[in-house]
Amino acid sequence: MFLKDLNESVRRRLDMLASIARHGEEHAVCEIARSEMPNLVAAVRTLMAQHEPGDPGECPACSRILWRWQRPWRRPKSPCRVYLAARWALLDEHAASPRS
Question: At 56, is the secondary structure helix, strand, or coil?
Fold first, then answer.
């Protein structure tokens, strides 16, 4: 239950920020940008750091280390889905969803 509540509270906060950015008055948008932008950038950087490619060029979080041990012929999905999502969102690229 805790994770569901955490997920919902983060989503509500992001929805509120997006709503202010889209529909808020200029003063509110500037205040939110100054106060919340550093937090959003820090959150994205934290996610990116957790998925930064290691020496073999693979994402350590997505490389499925246990899968390799059990099934060495299976390659991890590449490129990392977190990096793709960040690129699409930050560069406003409307690409098709990644293939599974």
Answer: coil
Q: Could you tell me how far CA 53 lies from the centroid of its own chain?
A: 15
Closest residue by Cα to residue 77 from 58, 91, 90, 94:
58
CA angle at 63 for the pair 85 and 54, rounded to the nearest 5°: 85
Mean pLDDT (the chain, rounded): 81
How far apart are the C-alpha atoms of 84 and 100, rounded to whole Å?
A: 13
Which tokens hold the place of 6? 């955490």
Q: Would you call 61 exposed, middle or buried from its count of C-beta atoms within 10 A (0-12, 13-18, 19+)? A: middle
Query: Considering the entire predicted model, what is its pTM?
Result: 0.70
Residue with tokens 């550093």: 38
